[in-house]
Amino acid sequence: MARASSNFVCQSCGAATSKWSGRCESCGEWNSIVEEEPLSTGPAGKVLGNVRGRSAKLVDLSHPEDPPPRTACAISELDRVLGGGLVPGSAILVGGDPGIGKSTLLLQAAAAFAKSGLSVIYASGEEASAQVRMRARRLGLEQAPVRLAAETNLRDILTTLEKEKPQLVIVDSIQTMWSDNVTSAPGSVAQVRAAAHELTSFAKSRNTSVIMVGHVTKDGQIAGPRVVEHMVDTVLYFEGERGHQFRILRSVKNRFGPADEIGVFEMTGAGLSEVGNPSALFLSERGTPAPGSVVFSGIEGTRPVLVELQALVAPTPHSQPRRSVVGWDGSRLAMILAVLEARCGIPFAGLDVYLNVAGGMKISEPAADLAVAAALLSAREDVALPPETVVFGEISLSGALRPVAQSENRLKEAQKLGFSTAILPRGGKAKAKGMTLTEMPDLATVVGEVFGAG
């Protein structure tokens, strides 16, 4: 039988080629392509024609089934992101930047689930057991009934799990796991794929929940092949700035609950403490409203969150004006600037534009368009909005304003925090008793009536 040819796989993005090259054509990384042996293949020349397998079990779609049981812990923000608690047999992948607090969060979660009655094993491939115990002592968790294992050999870990039969396993991290049936270094694409497959299969076959920690690339994506994210049931990203105390646990995939749900934590000396009302925390440092400051009422998953958008517009000393964005989409900012100039007659040529979402939040929904435009106009015209005003709405390329979903929830959250006025698109069905709603048909009306410009 002819020997199967090996593949050359990029260790950054997972792209496979038939020959080696110094630079990956998919992601542009240099010296990231490594030769890897192919995974085992079936016997050559055999087809399925005369080989009969077992019949698959068929179930009617209308067959009633109870929802999967869940185990909640004392960390309500984590339970919210998971969809109400931990589902038995689920595979969860948690990614985040180095030093952001992934190990701290999962050690606290392991202690919380253990105290709720689950049998928990924490397998660390990056730290010794003494280091994990030292962190637990610092967090006040040294008495938690959690068993530790400092091991990187995947076969040994699975053998231990078969013997101990835990209900929850935390693997920190998947990039340090080494499978002896794959001839490549730990952390390579083949090793990560094989380790994730083995752990996910173990979770499904033994009804054991498995939480895997994944490193991220410089682009913020979980390192390794994207097939790992397709294998697991839930993908969580732990976000935040190192110099800021806020941390956000965001669900980008969840087969047992809503996606795009967030949990907000605050990094303290005693570990991560959950934030029950993130809107009040994000607005706590707002101070006196200044030109360029606008409060936006957004929706993250199922919860409304109020954040402050800050804009600064200044003359540029360069031939090409700068457009700097933190926490929002830069291409959408370019679109808003183009609509302001083409439909409202507000030029931004020769002006540097800086936009920042306060508190380390990242906003992706189009409902922030009107708040961004209001912040830019406020900074350019040097006019501050009233402190009790909240803004939201989507802007079309024609300059018209479109209503957004869950407007009433946005207004209720704003009213709960003391806001009495809202600027929003006309045509929606939002109502808020006790609030003054200023409904606008298009962006030109906002420019003329609110800022007196244009």
TrEMBL record:
<dbReference type="GO" id="GO:0005524">
    <property type="term" value="F:ATP binding"/>
</dbReference>
<dbReference type="InterPro" id="IPR014721">
    <property type="entry name" value="Ribsml_uS5_D2-typ_fold_subgr"/>
</dbReference>
<keyword id="KW-0227">DNA damage</keyword>
<keyword id="KW-0234">DNA repair</keyword>
<dbReference type="Pfam" id="PF13481">
    <property type="entry name" value="AAA_25"/>
</dbReference>
<dbReference type="InterPro" id="IPR004504">
    <property type="entry name" value="DNA_repair_RadA"/>
</dbReference>
<dbReference type="InterPro" id="IPR003593">
    <property type="entry name" value="AAA+_ATPase"/>
</dbReference>
<keyword id="KW-0378">Hydrolase</keyword>
<keyword id="KW-0862">Zinc</keyword>
<protein>
    <recommendedName>
        <fullName>DNA repair protein RadA</fullName>
    </recommendedName>
</protein>
<dbReference type="InterPro" id="IPR027417">
    <property type="entry name" value="P-loop_NTPase"/>
</dbReference>
<keyword id="KW-0479">Metal-binding</keyword>
<keyword id="KW-0067">ATP-binding</keyword>
<dbReference type="InterPro" id="IPR020568">
    <property type="entry name" value="Ribosomal_Su5_D2-typ_SF"/>
</dbReference>
<keyword id="KW-0238">DNA-binding</keyword>
<comment type="function">
    <text>DNA-dependent ATPase involved in processing of recombination intermediates, plays a role in repairing DNA breaks. Stimulates the branch migration of RecA-mediated strand transfer reactions, allowing the 3' invading strand to extend heteroduplex DNA faster. Binds ssDNA in the presence of ADP but not other nucleotides, has ATPase activity that is stimulated by ssDNA and various branched DNA structures, but inhibited by SSB. Does not have RecA's homology-searching function.</text>
</comment>
<dbReference type="GO" id="GO:0140664">
    <property type="term" value="F:ATP-dependent DNA damage sensor activity"/>
</dbReference>
<keyword id="KW-0547">Nucleotide-binding</keyword>
<dbReference type="Pfam" id="PF13541">
    <property type="entry name" value="ChlI"/>
</dbReference>
<feature type="binding site">
    <location>
        <begin position="96"/>
        <end position="103"/>
    </location>
    <ligand>
        <name>ATP</name>
    </ligand>
</feature>
<feature type="region of interest" description="Lon-protease-like">
    <location>
        <begin position="352"/>
        <end position="454"/>
    </location>
</feature>
<keyword id="KW-0346">Stress response</keyword>
<dbReference type="InterPro" id="IPR041166">
    <property type="entry name" value="Rubredoxin_2"/>
</dbReference>
<dbReference type="GO" id="GO:0000725">
    <property type="term" value="P:recombinational repair"/>
</dbReference>
<dbReference type="GO" id="GO:0008270">
    <property type="term" value="F:zinc ion binding"/>
</dbReference>
<feature type="short sequence motif" description="RadA KNRFG motif">
    <location>
        <begin position="253"/>
        <end position="257"/>
    </location>
</feature>
<dbReference type="GO" id="GO:0005829">
    <property type="term" value="C:cytosol"/>
</dbReference>
<dbReference type="GO" id="GO:0016787">
    <property type="term" value="F:hydrolase activity"/>
</dbReference>
<feature type="domain" description="RecA family profile 1">
    <location>
        <begin position="67"/>
        <end position="216"/>
    </location>
</feature>
<dbReference type="GO" id="GO:0003684">
    <property type="term" value="F:damaged DNA binding"/>
</dbReference>
<keyword id="KW-0863">Zinc-finger</keyword>
<comment type="function">
    <text>Plays a role in repairing double-strand DNA breaks, probably involving stabilizing or processing branched DNA or blocked replication forks.</text>
</comment>
<dbReference type="Pfam" id="PF18073">
    <property type="entry name" value="Zn_ribbon_LapB"/>
</dbReference>
<dbReference type="InterPro" id="IPR020588">
    <property type="entry name" value="RecA_ATP-bd"/>
</dbReference>
<comment type="similarity">
    <text>Belongs to the RecA family. RadA subfamily.</text>
</comment>
